[in-house]
């Protein structure tokens, strides 16, 4: 019985031993010995086989391994940073068996960034019109070289771009640069395109150069005629942000701001029937010249633009489009913000009345000459003070407006003017005596005009001016005789609109005339028996 138990015990041990599997040894290894990485970098998985404790390391800080150690087989992640250089670079990741000392290396090679300028979007489409604040678009450029934006010459009058700003603190790694473009209204019924290129600065090369295509839609076609006039007037109201735009509803003949040609009008011809004769635009908000739509009002004789909310904070130009209206006789662009007038304004030879008061002129525009405007009779240049400064000798303020400087003699030589208004500006100094002016009163003039012969030899300054105002400037010194004895002096209301000055001129001189007459007795005596209007004034 004991013998049987022993045999059973031995068999049990043998059976147990047969159930124990023999441990299999795993060779120390990695799943790859090389990794190729693009310039942008990335993360890569590697299988590690090991029975022993191990460690991992890299020979460059731009390569990291996780986990960096362990007791057995696992999957590791090798991360490679994006490069900061243009050339290729290499590194090594080493896995070391801590027991046997065996090494397994993975060679990492990474491409460099080629110098390039690339665009996210290569085409931009624009409408022909948008309000000024909406006339911009942005373009995102990826680059690792400094570049300049080149706009073709044919598009520079309607497309511009701010200078790009670069920050290459990350080496050759491309950075995103946002460019802001500004565009202008397309005034012609044709599409237009600009091919904008991005050219690296001198000394830099690129493997690719960016190009942007900017397409702009055509303007709506406006045909010359009654219908075209109505479209032009409404478009002007829109472009000027006119407050009165809403009143332009129904037939154009019912609009408050226009008058149309009628058969009873002097100068009427059949082709003018229903066309705009005059138009009035007021209470606007614009930062630009008179819009292009104005050029279609080809039969207009009078146009008025008055009161721009930006009038004293912007320096605007009249623009070229209105200068095409050669039939204009009356033009007023007042409180608009004008600081310059184009030379093309000389095309308006038929102007008889020009009001550019309450603007921002620092100097008298060169285009304002009697040669350019032979028919002009009434000229308003008053109240161009952008800032009110009483003492010109004690101010640092720039861009005052008001024609700062000497009195403009050339206006005094404008013989045809009947109205000249220069009040409330910054003209300073003495009034020109005009003694060297070659045009003087002759005996025949005195006879024809019923004037005293004592005027013979006196400068014939503004002989037709029944209204001349130059008060509230910074004038000083003596009033010349041509003023004190001018045939129309009484009509000028001199004690109100001529003699009163104010403040101080730039040289510190007090602004006042030293010889203002106490009364007009000298004048009545000089003209006694002459000049019908003087007799009426005395009698009345």
In short:
This protein is an alpha/beta fold and 540 residues long. Helix content is 12%, strand content 26%.
The tally of beta strands, per DSSP, is: 30
Q: Roughly what fraction of the amino acids lie in strands? A: 25-35%
Order of strands, widest sheet = 18-19-20-22-24-25-27-29
CA(first)-CA(last) distance: 167 Å
Contiguous low-pLDDT stretches (5 residues minimum) are 536-540
- Share of residues in helices: 10-25%
Largest sheet geometry: 8 strands, mixed
Radius of gyration: 43 Å
Dominant shape? elongated
How many H/I helices? 8
Instruction: State mean pLDDT (0 to 100 scale).
Output: 90
Judged by helices, strands and strand pairing, the structural class is: alpha/beta
Task: Describe the fold and architecture.
This protein is α/β, with parallel strands linked by helices. The longest helix has 18 residues. The C terminus is likely disordered. The relative contact order is 0.06. The chain is elongated. Strands 18-19-20-22-24-25-27-29 form an 8-stranded mixed β-sheet, covered by helices on one side. The chain has a 5-stranded mixed β-sheet with strand order 2-9-8-4-6, with no helix packed on it. Strands 1-3-7-5 form a 4-stranded antiparallel β-sheet, with no helix packed on it.
How would you summarize the topology of this molecule?
Elements: H1 2-19, E1 29-30, E2 34-37, E3 42-49, E4 54-58, E5 63-66, E6 69-70, E7 74-80, E8 89-97, E9 103-110, E10 117-119, E11 123-126, E12 136-143, E13 147-150, E14 159-161, E15 175-183, E16 192-200, E17 211-216, H2 226-239, E18 258-260, E19 276-284, E20 302-308, E21 316-317, E22 330-334, E23 338-340, E24 353-355, E25 378-380, E26 405-406, H3 409-412, E27 419-421, E28 427-429, H4 443-449, E29 467-469, E30 474-475, H5 481-484, H6 494-497, H7 521-526, H8 532-539
Parallel strand pairs: 2-9, 11-17, 19-20, 20-22, 21-23, 22-24, 24-25, 25-27, 26-28, 27-29, 28-30
Antiparallel strand pairs: 1-3, 3-7, 4-6, 4-8, 5-7, 8-9, 10-12, 12-15, 13-16, 14-15, 16-17, 18-19
